[in-house]
Every structure is written in structure tokens, then in C-alpha cells.
Amino acid sequence: MPKKVFKTSKKKLTSLKEKVAQAKEDLDKVQTKLIKDQKNEQRAKENIAKLEADIKTKQADYDKAKQEVSTKQEALKKAQTELAEQKKVKAHAKKILDKANKELIKVQATVQDKQAKLKELQDQFGNYVGDDEELADTKKALSEAQTKLTQAQKNQADAQKDYDKAQVDYETKITQNKEAKEALAEFVTQEQEKKADNV
Fold first, then answer.
1. Are 62 and 192 in contact (CB under 8 A)?
2. Among 75, 56, 23, CA closest to 181
3. Is the pLDDT of residue 45 over 70?
4. Which of 23, 86, 122, 142 has the fewest CB atoms nearer than 10 Å to its CB?
5. How far apart are CA 76 and CA 70, in angstroms?
6. Is 0.70 surpassed by the pTM of this model?
7. d(CA 70, CA 161)
8. How far apart (Å, rounded) are the C-alpha atoms in residues 183 and 68?
9. pLDDT score recorded for residue 1
């Protein structure tokens, strides 16, 4: 009888050992799968963090580019406004110069007229020395005309100087306007090329 119990116990023991071995194997499989899952989860977390960082970087780049475009657009707008203002300054300077040129021509004609009249009177009087009202008036008128001529010449020279400066400033503004346009266009082109490279 005890022998039979021993046999049964041995059989049960073998069966239990197999079950324990199987359970260990199953546990190993589960643990291996768990480690693999944990690694996958960690990798996924790292990938998500990397993507989020990339998104932040791209957003920062976009914001920076947007700000840069805005700054360059403002610079262009300013350059265009200044160019328009300088165009007005130049037109005004031209008007003043034209007026000064006309005045100079007019005064030059007056001086020539007075000089001719004085010569005519002097030729008539010859070497006559004495007071003559007409001769004195003509001399006075000539003197006044010559003073006016000196002033008109100064006015014309000043107006010419102002106009020349306005012209130089106008050309500078044209250049600045062109440069601002080019800077904006170049930046936009670079940004589009960057986008194309990133796609």
C-alpha cells in the first residue's frame, strides 16, 4: 500500500514539476513581453517628445520668419513713404528753381535795358559834366537793377543748390526703396526654398 501511494505521489510530483516549469516559462514569456512593451512605450514617448520639440522649433522658426517678413514689409513701406515725400520735396525745389531762373532772366534783361539807356544818354551828353535829372535817374535805376541782379543770382544759386540736394536725396530714396523691395523678395524666396527642402 505505501508503495502505491509513493508511485502516485511521484506521478503527481512530476506533473507538478511540469506545471511549475510551464508556469515559469509562461512567466518568462510575460516578463519578456512586458520588457519589450516597456521599451516600445519608452521609444514611443521619446518619439513623441522629439516630435513635440520639432513642432516647437518649427513654430519658433515660423514666428521668427513671420516677424522678419513683417519687419521687412515695414521697412519697404517706410522707404516708399520717404520716397513719395522726397518726390514732393524735389518737385517743390524744382518750382522754386524755375521761378528763380525766370526772375534772373527778367532782372538781367532790366539791367541790360538800363545799361543801354545809360550809354545812350552818355553818348548824347558826351563830355558834358553837370547835373542832369534823367541821367541821374537812369544811373540810380541801373544801380538798383544791378542790386536786384546780384540778389536774383544769389537766389538762383541757392535754389539750384537746394534742387541738386533734393535730386541726390531723391535718388538715394529710390535706391533705398529698391533695396528694401529686394530684401523682402530675397527673404520670402529663401523661406519658400526652406519649406520646399523640409517637405
1. no
2. 75
3. yes
4. 23
5. 10
6. no
7. 38
8. 10
9. 45
Q: Long-range contacts for 108-112 (Cβ within 8 Å, ≥24 apart)?
A: 108/149, 108/152, 110/145, 110/148, 110/149, 111/142, 111/145, 111/146, 111/148, 111/149
What is the distance of C-alpha 60 from the center of its chain? 21
pLDDT above 70 for 199:
no
What does pLDDT average to over the chain? Answer: 88
Residue 34 is predicted with a pLDDT of 92
**Closest C-alpha among 197, 194, 199, 198 to residue 68:** 194
Q: Locate cell 517743390: which residue? A: 92
The residue among 197, 198, 193, 180 whose CA lies nearest residue 69 is: 180
**Please, which residues have CB within 8 angstroms of residue 126's CB and are 6 or more apart in sequence?**
none
